[in-house]
Amino acid sequence: MSFTIHGIGVSGGIAIGHAHLVSHSKLEVARYEIPVDQTAEECARFDLAVQAVHGELDQLRSSVPVGAPAEFAAFIDLHLMILNDSTLSAAPRTIIETERCNAEWALKIQTDELLQQFDAIEDSYLRERRADVIQVAQRVMKALSGQPGYMPPPSGDSNRNLVLVAHDLSPADVVLFKQHQFASFVTDLGGATSHTAIVARSLNIPCIVALHHARQLVRENEIIIVDGSQGVIIVDPDPQVLAEYQLRQREFGLERQKLRRLRDTPARTLDGTDIELYANIELPGDVALAVDSGATGIGLFRTEFLYLNRTDLPDEDEQFEAYRRVMEEMEGQPVTIRTYDLGADKQIDDIARLAPNPALGLRAIRLCLTEPKRFITQLRAMLRASRYGKMKILIPMLMNASEVDQALLLLEQAKRSLDDEGITYDRSIPVGGMVEIPAAALALGLLTKRLDFLSVGTNDLIQYLLAIDRTDDTVAHLYDPLHPAVLTLLAHIFTTAAKAKIPVAVCGEMAGDVTLTRLLLGLGLRQLSMHSAHLPEVKQRVLKTSLADSQPITRRMLRTTDPVKLRNLLDKLNG
Fold this sequence. Notes:
By secondary structure, this protein is an alpha/beta fold. It is built from 25 helices and 16 strands.
């Protein structure tokens, strides 16, 4: 039977494909008693689950491509070793027999005991292996519950017709999908400007979040239509609806092909003002799409994604190679590399900490300053790569002068260490700061006196200004880039930066929203950085924009406080 579910569209377009259910089984299960005469059967059920996971890992091991990093196979071998160990594969059977409990509960009890033992280990490397124990236990738990495995199917053309359906996905999960070619993914949780949604947009595929019950209602292999523009999925559509959306899908594809013709056209307004359109990237492999989309630079390289989906941390040489690759592939065009913004919803086991509100906690530059050795390692890698192109270093989440001064001091230490080793680098490398905390925006002089450029992170700036958790879909409707306070603060930032003669860019989601392009240009912005998928459409809007016509309407919007009137003025601005 056909039905629809409404959510929040975070990436436009239409996808049609078969559902593939993705699950994260947690070690939170109920206990129930097993009759004495059924314990042998329950033990057999546990054994079958272990065998199934063994088969999964064997298949993954055999599918590692030739030439892949050795860590790939080593990671799988480690999980096989944990699975084969009797403390995980046999001990739960004893618990089932002695406590007459279900296999899930026995696995949980045994895993909890193992994790306690790992916590008591003094050796940091061995202690970190607790995460691998959890992952293996979760695989067995999924097998016991009969859920499809979490690991996406092997990359290939068949994935083009798969729609991933999940309760929730982390930014790290979504980055994993870059090596596959799925048609789309949809989740029960999430907000339009969560980091997961942001990374999803970089994949340039239709995506919807905040569907609430899709993971429960959709069945494996059902046909799904994902309308990312309208924020709706249609499950098991009838033939007439399916044919209509197939037509829309073809039309959408043709429109994208037309926009590609603008790739080499300079982004210049009708009255002759040049606008810089840069791309945001998460990994070096994203550069090719940025160049193909016509980006004339990288405005934001989110380096924290180099730290995700791995059991260790990237060392200096690995980071250097990643940064050098980006610099070389951009062939002299500017590249802004942001120091890692870990914390909040982008955690790694090595630094994961429990916090009541991680978005306001130890993250970004705050975390960097508490881990100076790791921070200097990254700065050294950046400096070493700076000689291969035109690099800028960007520091996230600055709040006060002390943070800037400490960061610059550590950068000087990194420079001196390279000098001592006779390693060359760009000695005049520009250093900029992210404006994403209202306190920094209101006291902007603290940054303009110390830094070479500014980049406005509108996602966090709006989140903090309006007191809205952008990962919480229950308040997602309150996230409003047209709120008078947001517009006033942006105008203040652009005006202050212009008076200080310091370049300013916007690299948040507002930059890629074509409905806000003329508004930002009217406020005085001349540099926008966005995901490559949005760049052609934004360029088209720039080419059709007259600043002389836009600025008067923009000034009226700054004087307007009524939400309805603001929307009407925006519609007039976009004509």
